[in-house]
Amino acid sequence: MAPGSSSARSAAPAEPAPATRPRNRRQLIVEAAGRVFSERGYHTASMEEVAAQVGISAAALYRHFPNKYALFAECADVMVDGLVAALDEVPDGAGLRGVLTPLTRITVAHRASGGVYRWEARYLNREDRRRLRVKFGRLVERVDDAVQREHPLPDERLRAVAALGAIGSVTMHHTSIAQRRAEELLLAAALGVAASDPAGVPPGAHPVELPARPVPRTRRAEILAASVPLFARNGFANVTNGQIARAVGLTPSALYRHYPGKIDILAAACLQAAALLSQGVERSLQGVAGPREAVVALAATYVAYSFEHTELNSVAEAELAGLPDDLRRPVVLAQREHIAVWEQQLRLVRPELDPRQARVLVHAGFGVVVEAGRALRWRDAPENREAVTALVLGALGL
């Protein structure tokens, strides 16, 4: 058959159709970025990782966002905007359940990317952070209106903030659980928080005496003690070896005689936080009469620890994801052991819960402490500890 004939042309392979760009590519990028930022933290995450998640090149990603900060800021906005939009669709006068249900559903659906707000929002610039606070304030105000209609108490929105903390806790852990069941558990936890009286001393609660943070008696301990407030205030990635060295009167090169690198100081801080909490739990559980009293003791201990060691705890919670696997592993194991104690005691009190359900509720309690503590500006007073402990027990369904 002669070349160029119509039959020859029909037999030739068709040219591949040019790839079409998804209309929602920007949305796909933001969703992928939210997952990466939540999992790895703002400074550890890279634009290349985000691009790989979407299946595009880094160059293509930069056509949508000029830099990592712009992408990060949009991730933070999108999460809160989605919650605000969901509430805008709830009719005025809707009951508390009607207000909390859509917030719970959206948070669970986006749990992989929702962690951006809790710890990473501190890396936003002042104006972006202010704008985000205004949006979150609208959420709190709407939830508080519903809380006060059903459970009127002069608590200055503490229960509303804590209820949102219980719901948002699902973004901070990886417990595998069906979406519908997670929604049911978190909604019940939030409703339990809203129905609690922060001014009431929880039955069976006792004052907690935590072990004191070790007095730094060596240069290595001094470096650790000086680093924690710097990490807490500025974020690990923004603190330099020079700043740490100046805080203890050393030259930057002298730090290496005590720690191989800055990341090893962070690992030591995370391990110290886990050790202090573990020691506090051991002390608080001595002589408890039964599982309910044990859960109350666990809640009171975690609250006391969070108020007394706020900087250390915030560093451990916010920066753990940035540790390399070998340094993170012992900290994660200590955290799992701590949660296992909660899980065991909670299931003795509420035998209808399976291990995963109990774990989700334990994390909901932790979320209550974080957001309620922030709302109280971590002012360490007996009445604040008692209020937050009561809210944690409400989240646990006690």
TrEMBL record:
Coiled coil: none annotated. Residues 1-24 are annotated as: Disordered. Residues 23-83, 217-277 form the HTH tetR-type domain. Transmembrane segments: none annotated. It holds the Pfam family TetR_N. Residues 46-65, 240-259 bind DNA. Residues 1-21 have a biased composition (Low complexity). Keywords: DNA-binding, Transcription, Transcription regulation. The keyword Nucleus does not apply. PROSITE patterns: HTH_TETR_1, HTH_TETR_2. InterPro entries: DNA-bd_HTH_TetR-type_CS, Homeodomain-like_sf, HTH-type_TetR-like_transc_reg, HTH_TetR. GO terms for molecular function: DNA-binding transcription factor activity; transcription cis-regulatory region binding. One of its GO terms (biological process) is negative regulation of DNA-templated transcription. This is TetR/AcrR family transcriptional regulator. It comes from Actinospica acidiphila.
